[in-house]
Amino acid sequence: RSRPTRSAHHESARGYLETFGYLKKGRPEVGNLLLVDSEQAYEDDFRIAIKTLQEFGGIPVTGEIDEATKALMKQKRCGRPDREEDEEQHGHRRKR
Amino acid sequence: FAVQGEKWKHTNLTWSLSSVRRPSQLDPYGTRSVLSRALDVWAQASRLTFTEVNSDDADIVVSFAKRYHDDAYPFDGRGSILAHAFFPGSGRGGDAHFDDDELWLLQPRDDDEDGTSLFAVAVHEFGHSLGLSHSSVKGALMFPWYQGIQPNFVLPEDDRNGIQQMYGPKTSNKWARIPYYRPQEPPQTTTTTTTTTTTTTTTRKPYIHHHHNRHPERYPNRAYTPYPRTPSRYPSYYPERPYYPDRRHYNTSDDHPRRTNHHHPYSRPTETTTHGTTYRPRYPHVRPEYPTNPRPHYPNDPSQDNPRKPYYPEKTTQRPTTTTPSDKPDTCDTSYDAVALIRGELFIFKNRYHWRIGARGRYSGYPMEITRMWSSLPKNLTHVDAVYERPDRKIAIFIGKELYLFDSQYLLPGYPKPLRTFGLPESLEKLDAAMVWGHNGNTYFYSGTMYWKYDEEKGRVDYDYPRNMAMWKGVGNNIDSVFQWKDGKTYFFKGKGFWKFNDLQMQVENERPSLSASFWMGCPVERTGRRAGYR
């Protein structure tokens, strides 16, 4: 099988990040109409989400979909999001 | 840990295996036994009790389903998603769903590679059912990625703090702990019948003798009371005041089947923590299979790791006491090795331990070993010398002649590094303290009678140092620690006291140090070792 193209990794990572609450669901461009370069904003959000996942999972924080990150995303886990949606919507701070 | 916000208003929760969505690959009785044990983990650390009821109206309904199953979280077949659960609430609130396509194991062995321990996942999911979110602490139960469960499993500190913050710690009932005899030989499997006319295949532990509730009017809710104080007619190997393990061992039917003996005046059904009725043996004629030297089991005591090691108290009448590690400091009567403000929270270090003080005071469960937070520190750590959070938010921990540099909890590659690499003299044995001085934003290291200014950019101390500690008037030499608190002021520590430092006048505000315990630890003044003096 040919190596999955970078966008395939990108897409599966995006799905994973959205499933577990690291990235808002749906294309963010809709939400970022004010920004001149929404693609750049999306890349930033994506990178931040990857970093957040890496920090939460206790692997080196690189912001890249490296091998450690791929392995983490394959690992068995709980189906609940790591960052609860209501925290995003209401933005209230959740007690730690 | 993270508290999601929803919590149960009552603590006596009911649970049930779904009558409709049962596990297709698992024996229902074994499944219920594992689920019961998983709930018991949380019950042991909090005021919660769980009673199994055979109804889909229970608070927590456990079901096994495949793919899409009427909620927004479809499963993925034999894949990475194992289960999920809902936070406390009515309806499906508290319910836990397990992916029936997974290979669930009731008794996982070490070599089970692709199977998944139902117990490990159930304990995690029930954490959600009780209101806990995911934790980023590796090793915590609420860590989202599957980690299996160690054989001598103990509820991790992070989870204990979480559940106790929500529901309060278990009220300690010192009479309700009997010595727990860890099975030496493999437990024999027997089939028993309980009064609920269901045949339970249980793992039966050696029989442990119990004593009746002698004073039901005084202890109405207690199944057992200790011996009378003068056990003259009992064999000497009975300790005068035996310790009992937690209730788990005589209320749970799967561990130790019991039948209610209504005829005996002293034995009334007690409010059991888990299902099944309680049988109490006739007292006292049954000759117990009781080991000559009961081995008290203290879960958090590292010396318990080797059950094979015999435990013979010097005098059988002496009550085995909780062995507190000798170097564990008394929170309200100690000096400090290091004090630092890290991520806006106060961290105080002493010997192998540290306290963490947030906006609402000291965290419960402290002092805790330093290595539990920074696990890359040496295992034989005895103390740390100095700690500070660098301007780049890295955490510097000085131990002897070395600096350990952490990015939150992860040791950076290349560390530890010797102090000489930062321009400090080879002869320097250790640092006393380190801080970023709020007055000018520079970093200073202190040791004995000297101090250095450290250039964070260059990564070395400035050339016209060291200078004499006399510059910091009033604190003398050989300080214990110094740091800048949230009020922007500088505080020097020595012994059990501290000085507030006037940065402009470069001298202490009061010549006489104040008592650290009451100010920083919030201890009542009378408990703060004033007798020992702190000048």
Task: Summarize the topology.
The complex is a heterodimer of chains A (96) and B (535).
Chain A: H1 6-19, H2 38-57, H3 67-74, E1 77-78, H4 85-90
Chain B: E1 12-17, H1 28-45, E2 49-52, E3 60-65, E4 81-85, E5 96-99, E6 104-105, E7 116-117, H2 118-130, H3 157-167, E8 188-193, E9 199-204, H4 248-251, E10 338-342, E11 345-350, E12 353-358, E13 361-362, E14 368-369, H5 370-373, E15 386-389, E16 395-399, E17 402-407, E18 410-411, E19 417-418, E20 433-436, E21 443-447, E22 450-455, E23 460-461, E24 467-468, E25 481-484, E26 490-494, E27 497-502, E28 507-508, E29 514-515, H6 516-520
Parallel strand pairs in B: 1-2, 1-3, 3-5, 6-7
Antiparallel strand pairs in B: 4-5, 8-9, 10-11, 11-12, 12-13, 12-14, 15-16, 16-17, 17-18, 17-19, 20-21, 21-22, 22-23, 22-24, 25-26, 26-27, 27-28, 27-29
Task: Give your account of this protein's structure.
The complex is a heterodimer of chains A (96) and B (535). Chain A is built from 4 helices and 1 strand, in the order αααβα. Chain A has helices spanning 6-19, 38-57, 67-74, 85-90, and one strand at residues 77-78. Chain A starts with 5 loop residues before the first helix and ends in a 6-residue tail after the last helix. The model of chain A is unreliable at 27-36 and 86-96 (pLDDT under 50). Chain B starts with 11 loop residues before the first strand and ends in a 15-residue tail after the last helix. Chain B has 535 residues and is an alpha+beta fold. Chain B has a 5-stranded mixed beta sheet with strand order 2-1-3-5-4, covered by helices on one side. In chain B, strands 10, 11, 12, 13 and 14 form a 5-stranded antiparallel beta sheet that branches. In chain B, strands 15, 16, 17, 18 and 19 form a 5-stranded antiparallel beta sheet that branches. In chain B, a hairpin with a 5-residue loop joins strand 25 and strand 26. The A-B interface holds A 20, 55-58, 60-61, 72-82, 84, 94-96 and B 1-5, 73, 75, 80-85, 99, 116, 121, 124-125, 128, 133-134, 136, 138, 144-146, 165, 407-408, 410. Strand 1 of chain A pairs parallel with strand 4 (81-85) of chain B, so a sheet runs across the interface.
